[in-house]
Write a structure and sequence with these properties.
- The complex is a heterodimer.
- Chain A is mostly helical.
- In chain A, 74% of the residues lie in helices and 2% in strands.
- Chain A has one domain.
- Chain A has a two-stranded antiparallel sheet with strand order 1-2.
- The N terminus of chain A is likely disordered.
- By secondary structure, chain B is α+β, with helices and mostly antiparallel strands.
- In chain B, 47% of the residues lie in helices and 18% in strands.
- Chain B has a 5-stranded mixed beta sheet with strand order 1-5-4-2-3, with helices on one face.
- Classes of the chains: A mainly alpha, B alpha+beta.
- Chains A and B meet through helix 2, strand 2, helix 5, helix 6 and helix 7 of A and helix 1 and helix 6 of B.
Chain lengths: 168, 155
């Protein structure tokens, strides 16, 4: 427990210093993805069939999730709310991880998640329920794949985007 | 569509997709089918390489040195979860097996090659023989036993 605290402390320092070789406990992003899945599933269920119904619940849930994604994408996984819960409540009971992994892939996936949730919010704003449903559906698929199979679907968007973006 | 039904669909698709990926990822596959497509798309090279079944990776263009027996060429990217594990596995295999070299390319820096080889995900691992012909391809974290078996067939 003591060593786990020390490690996370030194990582917090390196993350605050903007270190690019940040390492994360691989169990953290999976834990976060599990909570994200629950929030997104609740958001998906709460989207009404027609836009005349109240949109308060899906908007609150998606705005909350957007803040969680946004904090992680902007400031790193150290700033991600679910990751904080994992480190303060779960890690002391589990002990330190067997190995560390790069921070960049899960952090990038938070950015991809943010984009989908923002699209969903814009869809709700314009009364386009199907846009919100599809966007939340994709975000939930990615979160479930991360939580259940440890797949980073968002990461795969990077190479596909690079193939489209880079002209030769 | 009713949102509850949509949730059932999304969860089913995610689980199904995940299981399919788990089943197919990391297998060393023959690379002939996609290479035939590529060969037909490259008129300049297809004329002098019609009888050639495998597509070649030219090591000099990429600044690579091919292994005397085989080369494991990994395409990686900046945001790639399994790339590190794949690198560790293949590096240790290349150290244990004489004549086998491991090389890694950043897919983003070789986007033309990535397009022509139809690489869509990282890590993608190509098994090259001593002349640079692509003999096998694995997408995702490769399975050690399959890499070892594929290397035994190439050498």
């Amino acid at each position: 427990m003591g060593t786990a605290r020390k490690i996370s402390g030194s990582r917090a320092v390196s993350a605050a210093a903007g270190s690019s070789d940040g390492k994360v406990d691989p169990r953290g992003p999976r834990f976060s993805a599990a909570i994200t899945s629950v929030v997104l599933a609740a958001a998906l269920i709460s989207i009404p069939g027609d836009s005349s119904a109240s949109l308060l619940v899906p908007i609150v849930l998606l705005a909350f999730q957007a803040m969680v994604f946004g904090a992680a994408a902007l400031f790193g996984l150290q700033a991600q709310l679910y990751g904080r819960v994992f480190r303060t409540l779960v890690v002391p009971r589990l002990g330190p991880p067997a190995e560390w992994e790069e921070e960049a892939p899960p952090r990038f996936s938070q950015l991809v998640g943010l984009v989908f949730v923002l699209v969903a919010l814009v869809g709700l704003g314009f009364g386009l329920m199907w846009v919100a449903q599809i966007a939340v559906g994709f975000a939930l698929t990615a979160a479930l794949l991360n939580a259940v199979f440890n797949y980073c679907l968002g990461c795969e968007m990077y190479l596909l985007a690079a193939r489209l973006r880079i002209r030769t | 569509m009713n949102s509850l039904w949509l949730l059932v669909v999304v969860v089913s698709v995610a689980i199904g997709f995940g299981l399919w990926r788990k089943w197919s990822d990391g297998r060393m596959r023959d690379d002939s089918t996609s290479l035939e497509i590529i060969a037909s798309r490259l008129p300049a090279e297809s004329t002098d390489g019609v009888e050639q079944e495998q597509l070649k990776v030219d090591p000099t263009d990429l600044g690579l040195t091919l292994g005397p027996r085989a080369t494991l060429l990994q395409f990686s990217s900046a945001f790639c979860q399994p790339c590190r594990s794949a690198r560790l596995l293949l590096t240790s295999l290349a150290e244990d097996l004489p004549g086998v070299t491991f090389a890694e390319l950043d897919a983003e820096d070789h986007i033309d090659l990535v397009r022509s080889l139809q690489i869509r995900r990282t890590p993608t691992i190509l098994l090259l023989d001593s002349s640079g012909n692509i003999r096998k391809r694995a997408v995702g974290l490769p399975r050690k036993s399959e890499v070892v078996a594929a290397l035994a067939n190439v050498v």
